[in-house]
Structure formats: structure tokens, C-alpha cells
Specification:
Elements lengths: L2 H13 L11 H11 L8 H14 L3 E5 L2 H11 L7 E5 L5 H8 L3 E5 L10 H5 L6 E7 L8 H11 L2 E5 L7 E2 L2 E2 L6 E5 L12 E5 L2 H10 L8 H7 L17 H10 L3 H19 L5 E3 L6 E2 L5 E5 L1 H4 L3 H10 L15 H7 L7 H7 L2 E4 L7 H14 L11
Parallel strand pairs: 2-3, 2-4, 4-5, 5-8
Antiparallel strand pairs: 1-9, 6-7, 6-11, 8-9, 10-12, 12-13
Helix pairs in contact: 2-10, 3-10, 4-5, 4-8, 11-16, 13-16
The structure holds pyridoxal-5'-phosphate.
Amino acid sequence: MTIANCKLQIEEEAARKIPYGRQTVSEEDIQAVVDVLRGDWLTTGPTVERFERAFARYTRAAEAVAVSSGTAALHAAMFAIGIGPGDEVIVPAMTFAATANCVVFQGATPLFADVDPHTLLLGPAQAEARITPRTRAIAAVDYAGQPCDYAALRTLAIEHGLALVSDASHSLGACDGGSPVGSLADLSTFSLHAVKPITTGEGGMVTTNDPVLAERMRRFRNHGFTADHRQRARAGSWFYEMTELGYNYRLTDFQCALGLSQLPQLDARIARRREIAARYDRAFAQLPGVEPLGLRQGASHGRHLYVVRLDRDALGVDRDRVFQRMRRAGIGVGVHYIPVHLHPFYRRRFATAEGDCPVAEAAYDEILSLPIFPALTDRDVDWVIACLSAACGLATRKPSNP
Ligand SMILES: *Cc1c(COP(=O)(O)O)cnc(C)c1O
């Protein structure tokens, strides 16, 4: 290779932009959506039910209820278990704001619990520390795609008469103790947003084994009406009543066609995510100061996010500086998440403050999410590793050639 060629290759590498996440949509997916668009039902039709049944089968839950987003799924779950004014729900500080917002939608109070320092997951000890006589539920979050210890959380929930909700937006396809996410809590909620394990563009799902809760959520997504128009058609009647205050949280048939087509590809996608994570793990074992998050015994990880903690003392450079350097190099790094209790809304409305959840707050200063998605190539991963080493001021091994 000539020097000019070599220089060109380096410039090409540097010009490459790598996002932190990206959807995978196949030609079959597109065809499935087009087929539904040419059919009779754009919404509230048979493809919604087919997707729900396939999703329930995959997660080994009795029921799945499709809704318009992961946030709607969380809202429907809080509605179904009867959360209302005066109630409290325990929510980990390290999550996306929607996990707590859905509690506020119902006029209740989120109680922010701290997380385990190694996994950043809500554990039974952190949840128990927040329980009061007004507490009605625990909303656990499978942060980064790793399931929480649901056996232990369930024991705690039963002991205190609490409902157990899982925000499984990151962990579709993962397992705990051999059981799939979706079957581990009273209600499990999923996001089908573009960056999530499978997507319908925007969309969500709730799984449960309780048909009464499922029926309540079906009404909730449809304005609170007792019967949808197909049930009325079957009954030959125009009559419907609004028994509860519901919303329009329906998911369309063509979105469900996309989800239905994506679901069989999920396991292969997770397998690729695990290969990428293993490649990062091997590299960072050699880089002191760059620490991947800990793994839970007995859980399989969906690898939705790949999060490292950057030890400022060991590296002599802080996360914000590394973040800027990575972005400048065209690497789409992220920070997941600002602890929810530090958002101005929560400080103002619920008087939350720094110091409420010290483990989550300390993690927030150090965490960086690196690109991970099924289409990411080994060459891309090696480039991210090389850029991160350089951004941390560490001696870098040359990125391996494709
Ligand atoms: C994405 C996400 C949500 C919200 O899902 P939307 O589909 O964007 O409404 C909720 N909780 C967590 C943990 C998420 O990552």
C-alpha cells in the first residue's frame, strides 16, 4: 500500500459515521407492510390480533395487548393495576423518563429507588428501602437488556402486597432463569420504537397472564369503550358504552405487519448483538479504566445497549470529554440515562434532589453507551474500540483490517 493510499484509508475511516443504534428492516418486512396496506384493514383489524398472538407465544405469556408506544404500554399497565391519586410506585432512578411519567399520568407518585452499582438494575434491597404504606407497585426496568432478578422482586412484592410491573423495553428476547422476559412479572411492557430489539416504527406491547388485566388494557387503548367496532359488528349492534376514561392508544395493522415480520428475526439479531458485546468485552479487558457493566448470574442479556463506565481517576479524562471526542470522530455514543429524579420536572413536582439515589448519580457521571445494533460489522466495532482508546488517551492497538 502506498503512503497516499494509506492516508486515504485513514481519512475514510475517520469520515465514517456510526450511529449508536439503527433499525433493521428487510425486504420481507417491507412486503409484509405493503400487503396489509393493499388489504381491507388499516387499523383494528386481524393483523393486530395475529401480532398479539405471536408476541404472546414468543414471550410465553397468556395475553399480549398491542398499543401505540412503549409509553402507552406503561400507562396501560398502571391503569390496569388501578394506580391512582395517593398511590406510590417504586421506579429505579436509572431509566428513561417514561417509566416514571406513567405513574404521574395516573395522578400517583413515583418513588425513585437506587440501583445496583454493578448492573445498574433495581434489586430487591433497593426496592424494599422505598416501600411505605402507600406503595402499590414496583416498576422494574431491564436496563440495557439485562433482566432484573424477578424471582427476588416477586417475593418482595408478594410479601408487601404489591403489583410487579416490568419495563422490558430493552429486553425483549432475553431470559431469566430460563423463562423469557414477558412472563416474569404481573405485567411486562415493551417499546417497539425504531431503536428497540424489534420495531413497528412507533409501537408498544403489554404481556400478562391475567385475562382481566388484558381486557382492561384493551378498553383503555380504545377510549374506554366496552366493545370495539368488530365486536359490535359480530353482535349486530351499534351500542357501545364508555365505562372508563381511555385513550386512543391503538396500533395500526400495517405497523403490526412490520412487527409480525420482524419477530422471527429477533433471536438471530440478539445473537449478533451478543457477538458485538463479546468483541467489546475482549477489547476492554485490556483497557484499565474502561469498565463494562456487570452481569447477573442466571440471566441472559438482550444487549440492547452496550454501556461502559469510564473511571476518571484511572484515565485522567472525564466522560464528557470522551463523549465529545467520540462524537467528533463520528461515533454515535449516548448517555443512558440522566437519573429521572434529577429532571427539572421531578425536582419541581416531587421535590427530588441530588443525593436521593447516590449510586445512580455516580454512574451517571461515568456511563457511555457505545454503538450496538445487528448491522454493525466487526470492522465497525474495531473502529469504535480504536476511537474510544484514543479518546481515553490510552495506547491503542491498530484497528484490524477488514
Ligand atoms: C424506549 C423506552 C420507553 C418508551 O418507549 P416509547 O416507545 O418510546 O414510548 C420506556 N422505557 C424504556 C426503558 C425505554 O427504553
